[in-house]
Amino acid sequence: MISAMFHRIRSDYFLSSRLREYELLLRTAINKGYQHQTLTTFFRAHLAGTASSLLFLHRHDIDTDPDTARRFFEIEQRLGVRSSFYFRRSTLDIPLMKEIHAYGSEVGYHYEELATVCKRKNITDASKVVLHYPEIRQELSDNFNQLKDQLGFPMTSIASHGDFANRKLGIPNHAVVDELLLQSLGVELECYDQRLLTAYSVALSDTLAPHFYKPYSPFQALNDNNPIIFLLTHPRHWHCAPLWNTRENLTRLIEGWKFRN
Known about the structure:
CATH architecture: Alpha-Beta Barrel
Shape: globular
Order of helices and strands: HHEHEHEHEHHHEHHEHEEHEH
Largest sheet: 9 strands, mixed
CATH class: Alpha Beta
Distance between the termini: 23 Å
CATH topology: TIM Barrel
Number of helices: 13
Number of strands: 9
């Protein structure tokens, strides 16, 4: 517990920028012949049976700090890399999102309405959450369509955010998403679709210091010549943003206290 808190504080307030490592990772993948695609592009090809054999698929969940999202994007632009970015309502940067889309990378909604409704209504009994699915779906639809109107272009994929309320309830945000909802939104892909998840040769994520990656390093995955590598990243694990991290930590603390009480 103490060790985890130490590493959280270190990562949130004292982490040296790892963006050079990020650029090195992309260069390593390129030099080994890996292509970079958006998740929707890969999903379409996978369903059609035409997916390439050496792919590095990259998903950015912008839970905090859209400034670092821009730094990711600038590195990718220099290297000609395409990837997928998912923004929460709290991290929307409409000009940046439009730039990402115009470049040919993917912009999607990092939704969390199941957790939001449960926290707002103080629903702590997992068995009662399903009773609120119609309200949750309507709120998700309203937020998605409002964002789409702001952007001025369609979003073809969405990705579920993980909140402490989801962990407490044991229900992920994507539990509320079904094919009918996706069709109504004009969305092709929810990023936790099993058809996508089972298509990866290896699925990796960044994490807190001192390990930085789980279950292991993407550099090792490249060295092992895995054909389809998926990496999930979050800004706070790559560049220190104390103000954003403090705001997020305080929000989590206050919401957690209200949810428990």
